[in-house]
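Hey,
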Amino acid sequence: MFDALTERLSGVFNRLTGRGVLTEKDVDAALREIRVALLEADVALPAVKAAIEQIRERAVGEDVIRAVAPGQQVIKIVHDGLVELLGGDGEPAGLDLDGEPPVAILMAGLQGSGKTTTAAKLARRIQARDKKKVLLASLDTRRPAAMEQLQQLAAQAEAGFLPIVPGQTATDIAKRAMSAARLQGYDVVILDTAGRTSIDEEMMAEAKAISDIARPREALLVADALTGQDAVETARRFHERLPLTGLVLTRMDGDARGGAALSMRHVTGLPVKFLGTGEKLDGLDAFDARRLAGRILGRGDIVSLVEKAAGEVDQEKAARMARKMAKGDFDLDDLADQLRQLQKMGGLGGLMGLLPGMNKAAQSQMAAAGMDDSMLKRQEAIILSMTRKERKKPDILKASRKRRVAAGSGVDVAEVNRLLKMHRQMADMMKRAGKSKGGLMGALGGMGGMGRGPDPALLQKMQGGAAGGGLPGLPGSGAAGGSALPGLGGGAPRLGPDGLPIGLPKKD
């Protein structure tokens, strides 16, 4: 979403960091370009004015003008300005689920904003992370099949669902939901209200009546980030009539300019609590101002990458891998497991977006070189085309066997050879790693205890150093983009001074 803004800001910073001395005139010229970049990204004018004024106040100080590396100082000041614009440097605003159960969460928003899907995502997240029993209830009596849609999503999220009773009004359903949750021992009730194509008096009166019945601890407005400044205006008008407690921005994986995400907090004063990405039920990320600012400035988001890995680590598999590695074993079945975990974590596209320096141009070059999610699937297909003995002892794969495997997986022999070479490199790396728990994914997710997630102190340390560090815990990781992720021939391409990968392999 922020690719265009990231590229514009990167151009400004490249010119600044190339100079040994900065004058006040240089800083003013850079600020003009930053202002234009933010306006072109559809950031609200009041938000742009406030951010530029704050950045200017700090950027023209003596500390910057006389600094040894003034360009780097300005980048840090712009980063801090973006953090402030996005909501400040404090702890991310989580959900308030304290109180006598059942605690109600009210979902509001316009039709088509992704409200129903977000309700199911939220239920899945609360059950997995907070270990609370969740009941979903659809109060949308207008949109055809809206209730049935939430019923299916509730089943996928393994959450409770209030049975559908035809003919009931939204307020009647709200009363029944709260009563059923109380009787059946649910901790949280998520009320999915009806949306409209535009805000009207009837809609706001219904939402207010539901709020008075349920007395929600959280009233979340779900807004589509692709609608730009319309989303900001929608949030403002909802908040005037309904006591909202936070915002959820959906479709953050889209290609809109991103201005809504940068403007929401400043214009409405409400915290952005979650960002929705994709249609899958695990596509809901907690909003963190510092991490998002880092991604906008091309610094990546290593902490989110580690958390993704931690969430996908299978404790039993990690223990099994640790025992095998202690013996120096890493066969092709193990490699296939690593490839599957990469796909579960969002594939190469999702992971590369979290790595420092991986801008849109770099990712396009990788895709042009055939380094995309389809490559992971091809490599897994190659492994699955082998016999059990071949997967355990790849050294027996001679020319005739390679031709059979290539034909069975629909690739050429050269691609089979590349996979085997990559496996040898990774096996050697695993032997050197020795006691790293859980293989590559375990090295990320098992920090602080295998299967228990990363150590908070380590995450804090990584957050401060995300600008230039590799993936900690991975042998051979170093500069941005140099991490040894499986499926990349032993390592993602290193980035040159222009931010583009060096030495990408050619397609056969």
